[in-house]
Each structure stands twice: as C-alpha cells, then as structure tokens.
C-alpha cells in the first residue's frame, strides 16, 4: 500500500513537472515584444493636419491607430519628437530639418518624403510684385531655413539680389542689391498671413496661407515653381527609423487614397512627392 502510494505520488510529481515545462514553452512567445499598434504624429495646423487625418483613416484599416497632435509653430513638433513625446512628425522640409539638427544637436532623421508646398508671395494691397513701392515693408519668416527660402523667393521675383553661394544660410545682410530699398520684417511663419494688413508683401508657407483662408493658386502673386527642392518629410528619431509601425504609417501616407485626396482637395496647391 505504501509502495503504491509512493508510485502514485511520483507519477503526479512527474506529470506536474512536465506540464510546467510545457506551459513555459507556450508562454515564451507572449514574452516577445508586442507589435506597436498606435503612433503619435505631430503636425502643423492646416494642410498637414488635414492630410494626416486622411492618413489616419487609411492606417486604421491597416490595423494602425494614428493620434494626430497639432502644433502652431515650426519648433515644438521637433522638440516634442526629440523628447520622445511623439513617434513621428510631418510638417518640415529637408533643409529645415538639417538646420534644426545642426542647431539643436538632435538626431532626427527622414523616414520618407511626403508632399511639396510651394511658398508664395502674398499681398492685400498689390496684384503684382512690380507694384510694391519704394521703401515698402515686406514680411519674411524668422526661422533660418524658411528665412533663406523666402529671400530666395524675393530674389526669384526680381526684387532683390543675394550674395552668390549663400544658399540656405541667407539672411537680409546677404542682400547686395535692393533697388526698391525694401525693409524686411521678420516674423513667426504662422503670423505672416495675419500681418498682410501691415506690410506691402509677405512670403507665406502654403499650409499657413491655407489656414488663413488664402488660395495659393489664386491669391499668391508670385510663387515657387513645381521643381522646388523644399519637399516635406515624415521625420522620426534615429532609433525609430525601421520601426514596423512607422513603415505602416508611411505606407498609409503614400496610398492611392491619400494621393487622390491631396490632388482633389488642394487643387494643385499641395503636390504629392512620391
């Protein structure tokens, strides 16, 4: 009887050990890193926001939830990304990102290209750049990348001439010819559209122009051409570049549904760049 009890106990112990081992083997996959199903993306108000909301719809069908966080300037989206408060942002051009990284010692990288927003010159007082009066006050962006871009736009319009080779580092001090003696007033990019009543002319980014109710095709009196090098990008922190969730976000952005939305909704004011 004792022997039978001993054998039964041994059998039950062995069964328990085998069951335990099996449970560990089955549980192992659950210990692996779970696939990321949500991303937080920073955008600026206006077209970037509208496009990302469409991307959100497409991504949802692919099993990815996109939380869109809206900013009203060009600094906070990168600061939030660098701090890890965002998974990605979509608002800036390549030259702007390069300058931001150089100035702030950040390691934000390009995940992929998105769209191009041709910058334009706008005025509520004049219908032609030639009509801007002698000594007139004109507006430009105060951040380095957009400021240089704006000055090159004024140069392309024939209003000024810049030193040769200044490129994306141009400032008003690099103007070597200014036939109309224009006075350049530097403002936050988001405020330029609101400043039109106080200046003769202002360079305005398409997203902020549209947010203020202006049509880039109808209301700008001079604009960049379609071959502008200022393509916008989805940006991420370097370690996140190959994240499958980011790749899924890009796939949604570059879908036919989003491309069609951009072409129809913005009527040529925003150009898909893929």
UniProtKB/TrEMBL annotation:
Subcellular location(s) per record: Membrane
Primary localization class, coarse: membrane
GO cellular component, one term: membrane
Assigned keywords, A-Z: Lipoprotein, Membrane, Palmitate, Signal
Keyword Membrane carried by entry: yes
Bilayer topology: Lipid-anchor
Cited Gene3D superfamilies: Periplasmic binding protein-like II
Signal peptide (UniProt feature, chain positions): 1-23
Lipidation (S-diacylglycerol cysteine): 21
Superkingdom per UniProt: Bacteria
NCBIfam families in alphabetical order: MetQ/NlpA family lipoprotein (TIGR00363)
Family: Belongs to the nlpA lipoprotein family.
UniProt-listed PANTHER family: D-METHIONINE-BINDING LIPOPROTEIN METQ (PTHR30429), D-METHIONINE-BINDING LIPOPROTEIN METQ-RELATED (PTHR30429:SF1)
Protein name: Lipoprotein
Organism: Brevibacillus panacihumi
